[in-house]
Structures are given as structure tokens and as C-alpha cells.
Known about the structure:
The complex is a heterodimer of chains A (156) and B (280). With 156 residues, chain A is mainly alpha-helical.
Amino acid sequence: MNNQLIRHILFGIFFVLLDVLFFQHLSIFSATADPLLCYLLWIIQKYERVPILIMTASFALLQDAFFDFWGIMMFSKTLTIFLVYTFVRRRSEAQLLLWQIFLIIFMSAFIHNIILFVLSSFFIAFATSYSPFAIIIGNTLYTALIGLLIYIFKNR
Amino acid sequence: MQFRVFKVENATDYIVTALILVLALAIAINRHQDGLNTLRQISIIVVSVLEEPLSNVRVYRQALRTNTYLQEQNILLQDELSRLRSIEQENNELRKLLNYQTNSEFDLQPVRFVTKTLNGINNTFTINAGSNQGVDVGMPVITSDGLVGKVIITAPEYAQVMPYFNSLFRVSARVQQTRSMGIVSWSGEDMSQLVMDFVPKTVPVDSGFVVETSGFGNEFPGGIPIGTVLSTKEEEGKDTQKIYLSPFTSLSEVAEGFVIKFQPDSTLDSLSTQTQALFR
């Protein structure tokens, strides 16, 4: 296990904890950001598909454990990363503009939230007073914005 | 968006993904099983331990709102408490006044002090009774504790009072225990004590003795308490001593009182006028 992998694993745990301890309390009209997804999109370019899928599943399972979702995040994040892997890898090879980064995170978060919502509906774990569509769009926008901010912060 | 097209060489990716997804679904479906319940309990404990130190941060905004609300409530309650204390004090004073009115042999007019000027040597009060209520110039103003002053100007519904803390105020007084006479006035300096002059040095006066109006001078009825003796001082080159008094009535606190409808004896006034005429 090389140093980079250890560092990425530790960062992944850090992002899960950041979500559990910080971001889940920063909800805006019931919409919450998912910094772990942004982190996974960021490290996609550094790993092959299988390692990144296993890492995604592990971090998502940890997130599931903290949120008591058990499998829902694991399923939705793994499927999302699987679906967007090629697209993100190819786009990441070139220098991206901010709006392109925002769009990538937005689309990935949208797919993730759709899967999350559909799956949650089966397990009745998605209870809120707001309409599901508003929540999906809200979560997606919020996540994309946070992801963009993290990107800007990282590059500076 | 380009999604991955199935290729045989990438079968491992699909198998791994499928296994992970199946595992995720299995976990989700079996979340209420005993094995997972133990894990759930552990995760809840971990989250609780991690979140506990941050709970103060999380509830910071709520704490600010609560703080503002409590401050508002505190101000309202302080205001209410202040008013209740004032009412209690007023109630006690009125009870004492009622008791005094029952016991007093004088014709009393209850009054309320509507204005107070206690910032110089010409201090004055205004009371809410005047000539329409039978209040006349020269009448003494008292509380259940003792003397306050005398009426100096009257209007139909109001009258102005000269309190004992006025440089022009004089009252004939006596020491209750020794019956020795003197004149009580205010030196104009200390707003906490009065001075009694013209008491012979030979009369022993001790602190704590009570000084009251003598009734002489045909201005105030006798027996109205003025104050207690604080100290005495012999006057150099004279046969008299100065007696310093602490008044019974606190002018800064007084709010209600009585006007004694005391009329000077006209016979005494007439005799006094005749006597003065003899020596002109």
C-alpha cells in the first residue's frame, strides 16, 4: 500500500466525517451537500476502475454506518462512480474551466441523487416535507457548489 | 455524457460493480437483522461520541436565539419586579398612614407628593391638595414617621411645601426626654442632618434622644416627631449647645403624607401683636 493510497483513504474518511459532523447540519431548505462524492470525483483520475469502485463502496459503507442508511449510499455511490467513470476520466485529462467542473459535479450528483431517491423510496428512508424533485435538485446544486468551492480552494 | 459501452475485456469491472451492488442491496435489506443491529449500535455510539464535542457549535444559532429571548424575558420580569416592589412599598406606606390617621387627634388631609425639588438650599415639594381641600399656608406636612415641612403657597388643587431641608425652615422643638427647648433648622450643607440651637449647655442631651415639635410659636402643634439626636457640640463663648439630629422622615423616599389642618390660635396671635406694639 503506497503513501498516496493511504493518504487518499485517510482523506476519504475525513470527508465522511466532515459530512457527518459538519455538512449534514448545514442544510438549506432540507438540501444537503455530499462532499464525499466531490472527493470521489476528484480521485477518479488517479485510479483504475476497480480500485476506485472498492474505495467508493468502502467510504459509502462508512457513510451508511454513520447515517444509519446501511447499503443505500453504498449502492448509489458505487453505481454513480461506475457510470461516470469514463466520462470524468476523459474530461480530467484536459484543464477544465470552472463551469465545466461545476457541470461535471452537477451531473454526477444528479445521477447519484436520483439513484439515492429511487432506492430510498423502497426502504422508506427518504422522509421530508419538501417535494422529492426539489430535494434532488437542491442536493445536486448544493453538492456541485461545494465541490466547486473545494476545487477552487485546493488549486489556490 | 459518455457511459461505458460493454466490452469483454472489462468484464472484471462489471463483476466487481455487480458484486458491490448486490452486497449493498443485501445490507440494505438485512439492516434489521441481529448482526447489523450490533453494527448499527456501534455506529450510533461512534457518531454520538464524535458529535458530542461539536454539539455546542451546532446549537450555536439556537443558543443565540434563546439568549435573545431570555434577555427580553429578563428585562420584562425585571420591570415587573420593580413595579411590584414599588407597589409593595407604597402599600406599606399607605398602611402606616392609615394607622397614623386612626390614632392621630389632628384633622388630617391625605396628600400625595407630586413634585420634589431636592437639589439646593431652597428645596420645595408640591402636594396634590390645595385650598379647595382646606389646605392653608403655614399648615404642617407630616408622614407617619414625623415632620416633613410646612405649606408655603396654596393653589385650588395644589400646594407648595417647604421641607425641613430648606435654609428658611425653622420650627420650635423640644428634646422629649429633657423637655429642653430650641429651634430646629437646616444648616444648608448636610442633607442628612438638622441642627437644634439654643439648648442650654447645662441640659444633658445624649445621642438617641427624640426631638419633637414643642407647640410653641403657635405654628405647629406639639408632639410631632422630628428626629433623633446624633451628637452635640458646645458653642464657644455661649451658654448653649448645638444638637445635631437625624430626621425620622426621609425626604428622598417620601411619597404620601398628610397636611395637618392646624390653625394658629388667634388669641395668641393677637396677644403677640399687642406685646410687640408695646415695645415699638
